[in-house]
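Sample intake sheet
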Amino acid sequence: MLFSTSLSRFLRHLSLVVFTLLLGACSGSQVTPPRVTTQPTSLPPTTTPTRNPPQAPVEPTPTTLTARAPTTTPAPDDWQSAPIIPVISEHTIAVYQRGLERGNDPRVFSKLGDCETFTTWFLSPFDQEPVTYDLGPYTDLSDVIEHYAGSYARPSMAARPGFNASSVFAPLWADPDRCESGETPIECEFRRNTPSVVLIMFGTNDRWHQEEFEAQMRRMIEYALENGVVPILSTKADNLEGDHSINRTIYALAMEYDIPLWNFWRAVQPLHNGGLDADGAHLTFGANRFGDADAMLAAWPVRNLTALQVLQAFLEAVSGI
């Protein structure tokens, strides 16, 4: 029995290694970025909220889905003019409140995505000491950085290089050391992290199987909603599929389910090449100096700034801070 368990664990590790070697577009090697030293930002003390015992994640059922029909049918290209930072709806607040009743943690968010989500360049600096970022004129973001402290650098069980929207439901790609046998990456992430909100960032690798993308995104959204976790969808910067159809789908789903849309694509349009490296897939690197005009010509600080602003808009809507 011990040999069988060890063999199974070894095979799962081997599968993950092979998978990493067979990545799609979101697979370029990354170098360690230069560190930027700034004075630490003074943050308010952390308070520990009262929580109910967390409930086990549940699969959605046809009778309890929480989709919301849009008030108007979105036009195919409405997504391009959608705001970068969403307005948080009453439906979204209700999902959040239901999640707290289940035991979700109001101070925790999760990340689902591919290599551009998995990388430590995305949000992780806001958990690092000494502080390596400069908020510049956005000092009001210190509150949201403090509120979600610990979530920024925490590795997600459902973010990995090469992932697409289908990957989070494949037990094969769950971390064998941290996830239970047969558990999918998204189940593992929600069980371990008990988030109240999740940033969902897919699409770059989904161009290879576009016919599956919408169905898997629906499954992901509905799984989050059924567990009282607010899904925030993000558009992607690239257009590797050639017709922006993936971003159209992301926008339409956000409208249908009445959930927040972070229009990251729009945020990077003023940047050179839309904030993309020469490969058309990876984001250009810059340090998180939000008051530095030169640094903000790169996509990474824009992504981190707008991600914080999205979380801030959500937090203000649900807590009134």
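Comment: Residues 82-319 form a domain with the Rossmann fold fold (CATH 3.40.50.1110). The longest helix spans residues 299-319.
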